[in-house]
Amino acid sequence: MPVVNDAVKTWLNSHIDRGFSPAALVDAMVGAGFESELARATVNASFDAADAADAARAAAAATPCGIEAAAGQYRYDPAPLAAGNVIRACDRDVKVLMRCERPQIVVFADVMSDEECGEMIERSRPLLKRSTTVNPENGSRDVIPNRTSEGAWYHRGADAFLERLEQRFASLMNWPVENGEGLQVLRYGIGAEYRAHFDYFPPSQTGSGVHIARGGQRVATLVLYLNDVATGGETFFPDAGVSVAPQRGGAVYFRYMNGARQLDPLSLHGGAPVLEGEKWIMTKWVREGVFA
């Protein structure tokens, strides 16, 4: 008889984030051999925990001017990206596959060539270390169970190859190169994920000040897909009902700070567990001001 372990809990949390109903999850667990009573109790507990987390986020949300805004209060102003179905990004034509207005999400194809993707994977492979997240209390970078990837960091403009990519990404996002953080490459193996989170630094958390001091708040993210993933690994936005499948050379852009410095709660997002193969991505975060 199967037991409820961390893998089962991770699976449940992922499917709750992606909108599956309690009945569907109970049926799936029973079909996998769990006793019906255990399945119902486990699913109900997982939904209760998810509801509590949602309530905590709502309680932490505040109103305008550089702090978090409740979903109905965030004002969507025009994103800085160029219009059209093809954007000339410095040295490359990039295709626009999808635009979402609320939250502001744009999906791209052909941001990087196959050769560039392969180069980033191979140069990053020997540098990988367990990924960290920002500690909300003191701003330190800690390893946590919610993020099970490995990563490698690069200083901005570290060499000519990276500088060329950064110029392209800055042109695509229509945001200054000097406002960008260094590139981060991440590898996700089977079962690895990043549960739903925000990329901005929550102003209500004391640890955010350490990072905001280095160039201001984060305003947008570009996630670049360095390989195809056969199953799983989507970038999902649970409150918006949007999910983006990894495609080699493509990317997803999302913006979460407007001109009034409000922060968009609908930008909550995560990386679904990889179910087959591995996932390699590269992340570019950009700030309000010059990042030093």
Automatic annotation (TrEMBL):
One Pfam family this sequence matches: 2OG-FeII_Oxy_3
Keyword Mitochondrion: no
Sequence ranges assigned to domain Fe2OG dioxygenase in this UniProt record: 179-288
Protein's name in the database: 2OG-Fe(II) oxygenase
Iron found in the keyword field: yes
Keyword annotations: Dioxygenase, Iron, Metal-binding, Oxidoreductase, Vitamin C
SMART domains in the cross-refs: P4Hc (SM00702)
Cofactor(s), names only, from the UniProt record: L-ascorbate
